[in-house]
Amino acid sequence: MNAPSFLAPSADGVAGDTRPAKHGEATLTVRDLRFGRTTRPGRWWLGGDPVATAWHTALSATFPRGEAFFIESVKACRDGAPPRLEAEIRDFVRQEINHTREHLAFNRGALEAGYDFTRIDAHVEAMLALTKGRPPEVNLAATMALEHFTAMLAHEFLANPAHFAGGEPEVVNLWRWHAIEEIEHKAVAFDTYRHATRNWRPRRRWVLRCLMMLIVTRNFLAHRIADALDLLAQDGITGWRAKGRLLAYLFIRPGVLRRIFPSWISYFRPSFHPWDHDDRALIATAERALAAG
């Protein structure tokens, strides 16, 4: 289906980096779908499991403002982009706008089910406040790291059906649709960063990329775990009982954070590019499931 992005060069050009550029058709498909307009998800929509539900609902609560930040970060660095990258950026923006719209609808359902996102919103607001006045390349590096996180999660969600086993079908389709498009556009922020920093020394580009991934990882894990625990507390699950169940869910079974670790560590390779891992086959399989749903 969609081939790797055109700007898949030998990443950061640090010593020993001799990989040739990849060339291929870069097609992002903007699927203007809508979910949950006639019914709202149940409070524990993911197999009746409050822990799994809390993790994914906490993620969704951050998406609308996070995706707006991604859009602005990429657009701020697109000047002079080659035509194909410019086209990819346009489709990236359209996909992210649709994701924002659908997660706003999903989030309204969670609020109607009785959840309170006040603390989650405060975490997102605090992180976005740190981006004000920063150089655009720094914000783009943060976006690039977060896009790698979303691509890793998307791959895992599509590759391992256990993550959404027993979930309400329309909500599962929302996440399936979102995951498809996250995989499709997983290289857009990376390639925009390559373009925006094309005159930098390779080592400077690599250092910023790695440093921002470390910062993003610390903040992402700390805040998303805190957010999930907040939602669990609203369900009356607190203390070590809540922490133990959430950590077991994330690291043991199904263990999404354990499973994505190899992909996370690969990001630090000087020669890394998101399409080193060509997981387009997952898109075709997921699209068939989406159509059947």
Automatic annotation (TrEMBL):
Pfam families named among the record's database cross-references: Metal_hydrol (PF10118)
Entry keywords, A to Z: Hydrolase
Annotated region (Disordered), positions in chain: 1-23
GO molecular function: hydrolase activity
UniProt xrefs under InterPro entries: UCP07580
Domain of life of the organism encoding this protein: Bacteria
Protein's name in the database: Metal-dependent hydrolase
Organism from which the protein derives: Novosphingobium piscinae
